[in-house]
Write a structure and sequence with these properties.
- The protein has 585 residues and is an alpha+beta fold.
- It has one domain: Gamma-glutamyltranspeptidase, small (S) subunit (Glutamine Phosphoribosylpyrophosphate, subunit 1, domain 1, 4-Layer Sandwich), CATH 3.60.20.
- Helix content is 33%, strand content 16%.
- It has a seven-stranded antiparallel β-sheet with strand order 1-20-19-15-14-9-8. It has a seven-stranded antiparallel β-sheet with strand order 7-4-3-11-10-2-21, with helices on one face.
- α6 packs antiparallel against α9.
- The two termini are 35 Å apart.
Length: 585
């Protein structure tokens, strides 16, 4: 699913969604949006709560998390509940067939868990090369079993729950079981994306579940039940994550992957049984008086965001209003970060990523010296950070994932979760298992070409490897070391500029989190400077072009979720480009 048209769908169906949400008694507290502002955004205030809050991409999922928090559940308890409900109501974006990164703050320490998918043991670097020796077309690689990585989300959820959960495992799965058995209504966004997708109907189980007999998507408001997933959830509730990594559900996954009629994969039961969640060192850095922590490799998101902010440390962004000046500086910082990302980032088990050097203040200061206020540097080259031992060369950026979601949660004890979760492209590999969930296409996040100019590419396919990601769940601490904010976004490689500009909005401009997430999107991934269509950012085009920017005005489908701690409690924002809400107790 490409970005074009998604923002238009959000606008078209926004008020239809509101009617569906308000018809659900448990969601009656959700505030109705005001009429659209001239920017095309919904003008709505931040949500507030006294004790705890969850921000997620669908009201039913957010409400499941809120109810868990109301029972004195932990932030992780709520995250588990939210993810299982998202698997149902937002199946195009995440679920137990995909992977995730989770940051957790326990009041004293940030811990990061890597539930990224892995390549099967049979995977080889030439996996996505065609018989002509050229990289496959993107969707030729995506659709089918070839693109499916060993899923990690469920293992991550169980690992987190065993460490930080308070409520019983079965209790936090119960809301999703009720919805799977009793049904939920098809949302405007799900209906619209089903109508746009060209490939999902080709999968018999997906066609039967999502579409009507004439091939049209089931209409908005249709009650959709998923008894197969309810059975899966009950087995997971009884047996834990092991239910998915061995036994009947695992056999179902392998059969679905390997028996695709035109593009089979090579996943085995051993691949599933051997999957492990990895605890990683968080990547943290200073930005002015704040401390910001994110996910390290194999995600490039945390490093790239911190590089962008570190490069701009000496710029007085707080005195600038949103406009072409800020767009220029953030785009230029993005060019530098993406140049380094392309060369140095990959799975740390396979690539010696110079994390310390990439975030070294002196190195970032030297990179900042390349930038100026009046002229774009154009295509940036990777730098030469200290402490590097890499032998790899330029790794072309992969495609943009739209099958991604983000969850932000703060519980009554002040503990926080920032979790970005994905199946990569919209609806993943377009494969539904008989167990009732879709499988990812995460392996297409690897670089299709295994070498560049005779040198190996850092993000090439290898057995057991985790593909590079752009996901950037973040946690922010104030000058006294207290939790200040949790945030993140879906959006493929655009996640990095989405999150960076939101941090500037929250920290430099002190904006309400709802205003911050709804701001126009802009940035550069070391290519054109991209401005969000349908917003005031379009008006910055001429100014940026006068500074030498190549500018493209495009739809930019962020899904930011942010919660900020204030003196009077919590305030939260859910990106109006999607269906999400921020609610709490």
């Amino acid at each position: 699913m490409r970005a074009s048209g998604l923002l238009r769908l959000a606008k078209r169906f926004r008020f239809a969604l509101l009617a569906v949400v308000l018809a659900t008694p448990s969601l009656a507290q959700t505030t109705a949006p005001a009429p659209e502002a001239p920017t095309g955004r919904v003008d709505k205030p931040a949500s507030t709560a006294a004790r705890d809050m969850v921000a997620a991409a669908n009201p039913l999922a957010a409400e499941a998390g809120r109810q868990i928090l109301a029972k004195s559940g932990s932030a992780v308890d709520a995250a588990v509940a939210v993810q299982f409900v998202l698997n149902l109501v937002e199946p195009q974006s995440s679920g137990v067939g995909g992977g995730a990164f989770l940051l957790h703050w326990d009041g004293a320490r940030v811990t990061t868990l890597d539930g990224r998918e892995t390549a099967p043991a049979a995977a080889r670097p030439e996996r996505f090369m065609g018989p002509d020796g050229k990289p496959m077309a993107f969707y030729d690689a995506v659709v089918g079993g070839r693109s499916v990585g060993v899923p990690g989300t469920l293992a991550l959820l169980q690992t987190a729950h065993r460490r930080w959960g308070k409520l019983p495992w079965a209790d936090v799965i119960a809301p999703a079981i009720r919805l799977a058995e009793g049904g939920f209504t098809v949302s405007p966004r799900l209906n619209g994306l089903l109508g746009q997708d060209e490939y999902l109907r080709q999968d018999p189980l997906s066609r039967d579940y999502f579409y009507q007999a004439d091939g049209s998507p089931k209409p908005v408001g249709t009650v959709l039940k998923n008894p197969a997933f309810a059975r899966t959830l009950r087995e997971i509730a009884e047996k834990g994550a092991e239910a998915l990594y061995s036994g009947g559900i695992a056999a179902d996954i392998v059969a679905t992957v390997t028996r695709h009629p035109t593009n089979p994969g090579d996943m085995t039961l051993d691949d599933l049984q051997n999957y492990r969640v990895e605890e990683r060192e968080p990547v943290c850095g200073a930005y002015r008086s704040w401390r910001i922590c994110g996910m390290g490799p194999p995600s490039s998101g945390g490093i790239a965001v911190l590089q962008m902010l570190g490069t701009l440390e000496d710029q007085d962004l707080g005195s600038m209003k949103p406009g072409p000046d800020v767009a220029h500086w953030l785009a230029e910082a993005g060019r530098l970060a993406f140049a380094d990302r392309a060369l140095f980032l990959g799975d740390p088990a396979f690539v010696d990523v110079p994390v310390r050097g990439l975030l070294d203040p002196a190195y970032l200061k030297s990179r900042a010296a390349l930038l100026g206020p009046d002229r774009s540097i154009g295509k940036a080259k990777a730098g030469d950070p200290p402490f590097q031992k890499t032998e790899f060369r330029f790794a072309p950026s992969g495609g943009v994932e739209f099958g991604t979601s983000h969850i932000s949660i703060i519980d009554r004890n002040g503990h926080g979760v920032s979790m970005t979760t994905t199946i990569e492209d919209g609806f993943g590999g377009r494969l539904m298992t008989r167990s009732g969930f879709l499988l990812n296409n995460e392996l297409t996040d690897f670089s299709f070409s295994p070498s560049q100019d005779g040198s190996p590419v850092a993000n090439r396919v290898e057995a057991g490897k985790r593909p590079r990601s752009s996901m950037a769940p973040m946690i922010v601490f104030d000058p006294q070391g207290k939790l200040h904010a949790v945030l993140g976004s879906p959006g493929g490689s655009q996640i990095i500029p989405y999150v960076a500009r939101t941090l500037v909005a929250l920290l430099d401009w002190k904006l309400d989190p709802q205003v911050a997430v709804d701001m126009p999107n802009f940035g550069s991934r070391n290519g054109p400077t991209e401005l969000e269509a349908g917003t005031e950012a379009e008006g910055w085009k001429a100014d940026l072009e006068a500074r030498g920017h190549e500018v493209k005005v495009i739809d930019m489908n962020s899904g930011l979720q942010a919660i900020v701690v204030g003196p009077d409690g919590l305030s939260g924002g859910a990106d109006s480009r999607r269906e999400g809400v921020a609610i709490g107790n």
